[in-house]
Amino acid sequence: MTAAEIRETSSEPVVSAPFFLRGEVVEGSDARHRSRDLGVTFATPAIDLDKAVHPRTEVPPLLNVPVAEIIDFLVATGDRLRDEHNPFVRDCIDRMTSTHVLPRSVLQAQVTGAAYYLDKRLLETVVEQNFPDPRALDEWIPKRDFTGRKSFVRAFAPRLVHVLPGNSPGTAVKSIAQGALVKAVNLFKMASSDPFTTVAILRTMADIDPDHPVVQSMSAVYWRGGDESVERALYRPQYFDKIVAWGGGDAIDNVIKYLGPGFQLVSFDPKTSISMVGREAFASDETLDTAAELAASDVMVLNQEACVASRFVFVEASPEEVDRFGQRLYERIAAKAAASGDTRPLDGELRDQVDMLTMLDDEFRVFGRTDGTGLVIRSDEPVDFHPINKISNVVRVDSLDDAMRYVNVATQTVGFYPFDRMPDYRDRLASGGAQRIVHLGEAGPSTIGNPHDAMYPLHRFVHWMAHEDGVEE
């Protein structure tokens, strides 16, 4: 819609979502959109496609900037993002509270907490873990094979479109940092539930140095996913090397149709995380309380909006024991939900599904209510819907071996208790397709530099270029 059409069609308040194009903040209300979860209206400028694309005839701005200098700039940005007086972050949170399902306190903690990713030691570790020889980011590395052939190899600056998720504002910080570390030309497609955080970070960078090559390498815009008038113009190999896509199945399916020779997908696609609790949890009331508390922590990562948040808890127990665990897990989820201030009721379809289960007493037991204050469903097989909004499905098994048939390539994180049994299961979990096994209660934090979604992302992002220089005499 045009700005005039927006004024004519409704008196509903409209929140503005500016763009950031290669160092320039672009305001405007040329188009109207609806946020995914809350259906709130927000307005954006029209996309200047020429400004959003760096021609391939232009060398990437960061190409010859040392990684060490890039890290220093990112660290300075992190300091500014954590400053409680940062006007861009304050404005971002003000706007995002109208479009995002999470409460203001959680959003504030996510944005400022994510800034701790911009730590010098952390960023250096990420680079070192992703590249056997990090010098390849800064220079052409000479090589010679056993036949005497000489060559030079470089991790060349890529051209990336990042399709960002709406569930975690902190992903914007990480994506911007990763794009800078590989010296990419970056176009960020923001999510409808959060068309603000990425621009707030980039505005903070521009406030430090508007001419810095990191700033000049970054653009952030919004369009409705699937809008062919935009995507057919942008998703082309003459402009970009790869799409780095986060999000649900629809988002991933949408970009796949544009892939082809020279234009690849790096996908952080939908994942489901689970927990596995062995019978050792029932050794005493103390161990049972411990296991329930740890499991609740994993369920409530980002109030269960994150991929690492547990949805299903497989418990090695008798029917009587599993209900004891389910009750204690519910109490702890409810306490964490109340402390967060996030007590959104379940949506209508999900509420109806849960209400149906309460009538099947022989097969299911439900602890809690469908009012968003926390809920546990006990069953002998996983429910056939996706638990979300503080819902945990506790599945009773005679042996944790029986839980293995539910592990597949969509299983991301497995929280495990007791810890000393983890080595017995890690090979089988990997064979089933799982990507990460952790102590129960530690689904949220991750070892710095480890693979994500079964890959080293930065290594995948870059354009690996070889210069072959003949046979050495």
From TrEMBL:
Keyword list, A-Z: NADP, Oxidoreductase
Tell me the Gene Ontology biological-process terms attached to this UniProt entry. bioluminescence
Write down the Pfam families for this protein, in alphabetical order: LuxC
Q: Which domain of life is it from?
A: Bacteria
Q: Which InterPro entries match?
A: Ald_DH/histidinol_DH (IPR016161), CoA_reduct_LuxC (IPR008670)
What EC class does the entry list?
oxidoreductase
The EC number of this protein is 1.2.1.50
For this UniProt entry, the molecular function terms from Gene Ontology, in alphabetical order, are: acyl-CoA dehydrogenase activity; long-chain-fatty-acyl-CoA reductase activity
Catalytic reaction list: a long-chain fatty aldehyde + NADP(+) + CoA = a long-chain fatty acyl-CoA + NADPH + H(+)
Q: What family does this chain come from, according to its entry?
A: Belongs to the LuxC family.
Q: What is this protein called?
A: Acyl-CoA reductase
Q: List the source organism.
A: Nocardia macrotermitis
